[in-house]
Amino acid sequence: HATEGPGGGVIQGSASEAVLVAVLAAREQAVVKYRELHPELSESEIRGKLIAYSSDQSNSCIEKAGVIAAMPIKLLPAGEDLILRGEALKKAIEEDVQEGRIPVICIATLGTTGTCAYDDIESLATVCEDHNVWLHVDAAYAGGAFALDECADLRRGIDRVDSLNFNLHKFMLVNFDCSAMWLKDANKVVDSFNVDRIYLKHKYEGQSQIPDFRHWQIPLGRRFRALKVWITFRTLGAEGLRAHVRKHISLAEQFEKLVKDDKRFELVAPRALGLVCFRPKGDNEITAQLLQ
Ligand code: PLP
Fold first, then answer.
1. Which of 6, 21, 148, 202 has its CA 20 to 30 A from that of 140?
2. Of the candidates 151, 105, 152, 96, the residue with the CA atom closest to the CA atom of residue 124
């Protein structure tokens, strides 16, 4: 909001809401574009052809967004390292285009729920740019680590995405609920969601310095979540927040070492940020018992 550009940020309640907003906006943009390109097709014919993509490692909220948006989301196979790469997306898009479908959006994850794997944003962005597909990044958990210079690698490629969300209620010590969402071009969301009534009019309408957040979200009214973000930031400071994230990482490193030094256990995936995935060696039943 600090410049004249079309970008902007909004605080949503949850990652699920942010993903849904991105999916709905991308869908509406695609419908408008295809109606111009193919006036011979009806709107319902176009809507019936829309298709979206994510990885089979993405959070359940991605699939749910597809259900609510009435747009199938293909869960593409991640690699053996559980990372989704451009190659898999390119193959799926090419097949779908061949069969007459309209690719709309790809939702990548930085920090998957299962193992905190980071999808390859650079290669996904290249494919999305080639096919005019919206790229959203769900960084619900790992996004908090964007604040650390030593985690700069995590941010690779995010300047090329259309939208991004991360949960301040995860790593950033803000209490639930609070999910930050950024949009490269907020007009794409506002144009999709703008429904006016006479009782919603006000004298500052259309002034970009005073965004009308009701057009950026599902509900009409909003909670004042920015207040608790402000209080948390003012209380702890940027260094305090960084220290908190670093503490989580160092605790996970300690735990990883304990697992590695113990013959009864093994790591299932490489440690990532504060997450260590491990299991007892041997039969799966032992893992089930331990979990219980
Ligand atoms: N995305 C990822 C990667 C997550 O790990 C989670 C929750 O664990 C979510 C989305 C859902 O978050 P929310 O409860 O804010 O919708």
1. 6
2. 105
Q: Is the peptide bond before 177 cis (omega within 30 degrees of 0)?
A: yes
Residue 59 annotated as catalytic: yes
Query: Which pLDDT does position 203 carry in this prediction?
Result: 82
CA of 20 relative to ligand 1 center, distance in Å? 12
The two tokens of residue 77 are 């196979």
Sorted by where each begins, the domain ranges of the chain are 8-228, 236-290
- Is 140's C-beta closer than 6 angstroms to any atom of ligand 1? yes
pLDDT of residue 208: 65
- CA 152 to CA 6: how far, in whole Å? 25
Locate the ligand 1 atom nearest the alpha carbon of residue 109 and give its number. Answer: 3
pLDDT of residue 243: 97
What b/e string do you get for 166-175 counting C-beta neighbours within 10 Å, with b at 16 or more? bbbbbbbbbe
Instruction: Quickly name the fold that domain 236-290 has.
Output: Aspartate Aminotransferase, domain 1 (3.90.1150)
Q: Give the three-state DSSP class for 131.
A: helix
| Ligand 1 mutation pick, 83, 112, 113, max ligand atoms within 8 A of CB | 113
Residue ranges of the chain with per-residue pLDDT less than 50: none
Which DSSP category does 171 fall into? T
Q: How far apart, in whole angstroms, are the C-alpha atoms of residue 97 and residue 84?
A: 20
Position 2 scores a pLDDT of 66
Please tell me the predicted confidence (pLDDT) of residue 205. Answer: 79
Pocket test for ligand 1, best of 116, 138, 174 (most atoms within 8 A of CB): 138
Provide CATH code, domain 8-228: 3.40.640.10
Q: Would the CB of 275 count as within 6 Å of ligand 1?
A: no
Is residue 16 in contact with ligand 1, taking CB distance under 6 Å?
yes
Q: Which atom of ligand 1 is nearest to the CA of 112?
A: 3
The DSSP code for 98 is H
Give me 111's structure tokens: 């920090």
Confidence (pLDDT) at 211 = 84
